[in-house]
Amino acid sequence: MMDKSNHSTTIFKFLDWLSALVAWLIFFIFRKTYVDNYRFEWSEVASDKNFILGITLLPLIWILWYGFTGQYHKAYRQSRLKMVFRSFWQALLGVLAIFFILLLDDKVASYKNYYATFSFLLITHFILTVSLRVFLLTVIKDKMARGEVLINALIVGSSFKAHQFFEEFKSNPLVYGYDIKGLVSLNGTIKQLDDELPILGTMDDIETICNELNIEDVIIAVEQKEHTYINRIIISLSLQKVFIRIIPDLYDILAGSVSMSEVVGAPLIDIYPDAMQPWQQNMKRVLDIVISLVALVLLTPVFLLLTLIIKLHDGGKILYLQERVGKGGLPFQLYKFRSMNENAEPNGPALSSDNDLRITPIGKWMRKWRVDELPQFWNVVKGEMSLIGPRPERHFFIQEMSKIAPQVKHLQRVKPGITSLGMVKYGYAQNVDEMIDRLKYDIIYIEKRSLGLDFKIFLYTIVTLINGRGK
What we know:
Elements: H1 4-35, H2 42-47, H3 49-68, H4 80-103, H5 111-145, E1 151-156, H6 160-171, H7 173-176, E2 178-185, E3 199-202, H8 206-212, E4 217-220, H9 228-236, E5 243-246, H10 250-254, E6 269-271, H11 278-298, H12 300-314, E7 319-325, E8 331-337, H13 361-369, H14 376-381, E9 386-388, H15 395-404, E10 417-419, H16 421-425, H17 432-448, H18 451-467
Parallel strand pairs: 1-2, 1-4, 2-3, 4-5, 9-10
Antiparallel strand pairs: 5-6, 7-8
Helix pairs in contact: 1-3, 1-5, 4-5, 15-17
């Protein structure tokens, strides 16, 4: 089976490039003949520097714009109707940028020509782009309907509901577009399915199975009495980029949790791998870099002053580097201004407290105003952290927390941050129990994160700093 994601993305990019090129060609001819009242000659068009520059660079810029707005993220799974609406606002914003940057200074006889120029480019570009996209999506969906292109899927369950879903799938296999690789059993084999679909393993094997078989969708089919397994399954798959789909019971349906992605087929509760849309993730990264670089430049005098104070106090190191766990469980070195005595943990990892004797006098002041965290702007620039995200923890404390709250694994789904919802709602934790209490706020952030929520947390952090409510 082909790599659906890479293959379809390449074709989408080519068609978008082609539509942008043809749209600019048609628009250029329109502008020369209608706006400038020139007699059309192919030789003049081909030798025009603006035409050559536009037809060379603009299609590439359009592809970068579409990539930034998330157009190519699992493009083959998109709804055609949603794609049309998304294409319109992408075209509208893109043409607005082209109009104000490249076309507004053109000398025209009447402002009506400006309106005509903008409208013609928008309509031409939109129609060409959306037509080719709809055509490609239709081809892909037709191939899925014929079973030529399928999504690798896995059923997790050990009860009647798993059998019931599989029977419904067999009666309408092309509705789902699935290639069901097998089943993962919760508590033993499912005898009635053994002859038709392989039992691939148990819950302990689910991550390995997803990786080896390139699973994209996991269907959880459990009875109401087995709902405790759902939390364990979601935790196990928290770092896997899979779509989790739960077959609901009556309570879920009445609670409005069900999302009907197809009119035909079983109703399902969709749990997506990331709540933040791709374009918001890209914008978040841009803001992270810009704000962090500006902060590093503007705060240079503060850095120099703190360097001098720390050095004069005890002559020790200025910065304190500590290994923390980041996105995907990968370790990185966290930068902080040293606020404790050197060699402050002779007996192993230990959290600080309100009256911690290891904290230096200048360290208490830095922690109150949280200026010891300022070097982490460099962690953000490097891509190891974000401005907003759950605070990164050390591997030792993650292990301690996971003994009580295995949900801590969810924190590794996103980049850690300089500040977080947990920090503004709860603050620094002095022991593992407090870290677990703070965990719920960080999980809420991960499940609901958006640029709007990031902005609110940013404002609350500023208020916290102004009031000196750090520790």
